[in-house]
Every structure is written in C-alpha cells, then in structure tokens.
Amino acid sequence: MVNVGRSQFHLPSGDAQILRGHTGIVISGRQALLDRLASVAKKLDGTAFSFSEHNDYVEATCPWGNRVRCYEPDAARFGRITLGIPYVEFDVPVGTAQGFARSIQRSWGCPPSSRTAMVP
Questions:
Q1: Is the pTM here over 0.90, yes or no?
Q2: Distance from C-alpha of 115 to C-alpha of 31, rounded to nearest angstrom
Q3: Structure letter (DSSP) for residue 118
Q4: Pairing of strands 21-26, 67-71
Q5: Are the CB atoms for 65 and 48 separated by under 8 Å?
Q6: Residue 53 contacts residue 70 (beta carbons within 8 Å)
Q7: 25 vs 5, 7, 14, 46, 77, CA distance in Å?
Q8: 38-93 tens-digit pLDDT
Q9: Where do the DSSP E strands lie in the chain?
C-alpha cells in the first residue's frame, strides 16, 4: 500500500493492472513535483513513464501506464483535502456507463457522476 493522505493505492504483485482512466491526486508544491518527475525521467526511459503540464494540473503516467492528474489544493474544487485522492475517473465503452455506475454505487457505496449525460 501507498498512502496519499487518508487514501491509499493498493499495489498488487504480478502483472501490472492498468486503469481505464486516471486518478486525481491533490498535492501541494507543483514546481517541486515537476522537478522530481524531471529528475527520474532519464532513469525510466523505455517505460510508459511521462509527464506534462496543463493549466490546472500535472499529468503523470507511471512506468506501467497508469495516469494520475496532480492538482494543487483547492477548497472550492476538492474541499478540505490538502493531500489525497478526491476522485477516480473511469473511461468506459459507449453504452456501458449506466451499468458501470450501478456497480460502483453498489460496491463502493458512493454515487457516481459523469461529465456526459447519464440516466440513473
């Protein structure tokens, strides 16, 4: 396990599991994060590792292909989180969002949301 504030990533052994989508992370110190990412880029050459700056986040791809979007703390957007995982966004095939949303609600006990129209 890797702790991110009060949230956790569970790191299984064996083959890499690649999430269809990305995980949002709130972490302060954007420039320090960019410096750290740049400092390991050469060591991770030949893997899926990459990172890029965007207006309100830094997107990083781990050596196996999982993507994270790193945001500065923003109470209006993420509440009181200063370090943590405020969301996980899943990219799902067309026509499967409603079933996926019901599954998430049943198994995780949290309401899904969507940027596109989704009928409950």
A1: no
A2: 29
A3: -
A4: parallel
A5: yes
A6: no
A7: 10, 10, 25, 25, 12
A8: 999 999 999 999 999 999 999 999 999 999 999 999 999 999 999 999 988 888 77
A9: 2-4, 7-9, 21-26, 50-53, 58-61, 67-71, 84-90
Which pairing describes strands 21-26 and 7-9: parallel, antiparallel, or unpaired? unpaired
**Could you tell me if 97 and 114 are in contact, meaning their C-beta atoms sit under 8 angstroms apart?**
yes
Q: Give me 35's structure tokens.
A: 């410096």
Which amino acid appears at position 51 of this protein? Answer: F
Token look-up 């969002």 returns 97
Per-residue model confidence (pLDDT) at position 24: 95
Are 36 and 85 in contact, with CB atoms under 8 Å apart?
A: no
**Could you tell me the two tokens for 86?**
């405020």
Residue with tokens 């989508």: 21
The pair of structure tokens assigned to 108 is 């995780």
Sign of CA dihedral 30, 21, 49, 5: positive
Q: Which residues contact 71 (CB under 8 A, 6 or more apart)?
A: 24, 25, 26, 27, 56, 57, 77, 78
* DSSP H helical ranges for 15-92: 30-41, 75-78
